[in-house]
Amino acid sequence: MHTTETTRRPTAERKRDTLKRLATERDIWVSTAHPEHGPHQVPLWFRWDGRAVWMCTGATSVTARNAREEPRVRLALPDTHDVVLLQGEAECFPDQDVPADAAEAYTARFRWDPRTEEGSFLYLRVTPTAVRAWRGEPELRGRLLMRDGAWLA
Question: Are the C-beta atoms of 110 and 42 separated by less than 8 Å?
Answer without folding.
Answer: no
